[in-house]
Amino acid sequence: MIGTLLERLVIAVAADLGGLDSELDRGEKKINNFAANGQKSFAKMGESWKRTGQSMMKGGAVMSAALTAPLAAFGVKAVDAAIRAEEMNSRFDVVFGEMSESVRNWAETTGNELGRSTQEMQRGAIAFQELFKSALDPAQATEMSKQFAVLTQDLASFKDLSNEVAQQKLFSGLTGEAEPLKAISVFINESAVQAKALELGLEKVNGKFTDQSKILARAALIREQLADAEGDVLKTNESTANQIKRAEGSFEELSTTVGEVLVPALTPLVEALTSVLEAFN
Known about the structure:
The protein is mainly alpha-helical. 83% of the residues lie in helices and 1% in strands. Strands 1-2 form a two-stranded antiparallel ribbon.
C-alpha cells in the first residue's frame, strides 16, 4: 500500500514537474517571442529614426541650398554690377571731363526723384552726350544730354516701353532714322529738319546745314512732338509699371553697393588665378 502510495506521489510529482516543464517551455517561448518582437520593434524604430534623420539632413541640405544659392547668385550679380559701374564711371569721366562730378550728382538727385538708379541716369546722359558734344560746346551739350536722359524715362513711361527701347528710338531719331520714331508717333522728314534749322537760326556751311546742325534741329522737333510725354514719370509715379522700375532701380543701387565691397576682396584671387593660368600657358 505504501509502495502504491509512493508510486502515486512520484507519478503526481512527475506530472506536476512535467506541467512545470511545459509551462517553462511556454514561458521561454513567450520570452523569446517577446525578445524577437522587441528586436524587430527596435529595429523598425531605428530604421524609422534613420529615415527621419536622413529626411532632416536632406531637408537641411535643401534649406541650405535654398538660402545659399540665391545669396551666391546675388553675390555674382552684385560683383557684375559693381564692375560695370566702375567701367561706366571711367567712361563717364572721359565723356564729361571737368563736369563729370556735377553730372554724377545730377544723376543721383534726378534718379531719386524719378525712382531710377543713379547708374540708369548716367547711362542715358553718356549716350546722348557723345552725340550732342559734336554739335554744341560741352556745357550746352551736357544740358541737352540731361534733358534727353529724362525724356527717355518719360517716353518709356508714356508709351509703355523699356528704358532701353525708348533711348534707342530717340537716339536713332536724332541721327536721322525716321522709322523708329514713327512707332512713337513722331514724324520727321528732311523738309521739317531744314525748316526747323532755319527757325533756330543755325548757319549753313557751303549752302548746306551740317550734320551737327541737323542733330539740333531734330532734337527740337522730337521734343515738340513728345510734349505730352514730358513729366509722365512723375505724373504716373504710382502706376504698377513705374513701381516695378523703381524697385529695379533700388535693386541695381543695392547690387552695386554690395559689389563695391566684394570686388576688392575678389581682385587678389582673380589676379592669383590669372598668374597660375599664365604660368600653364
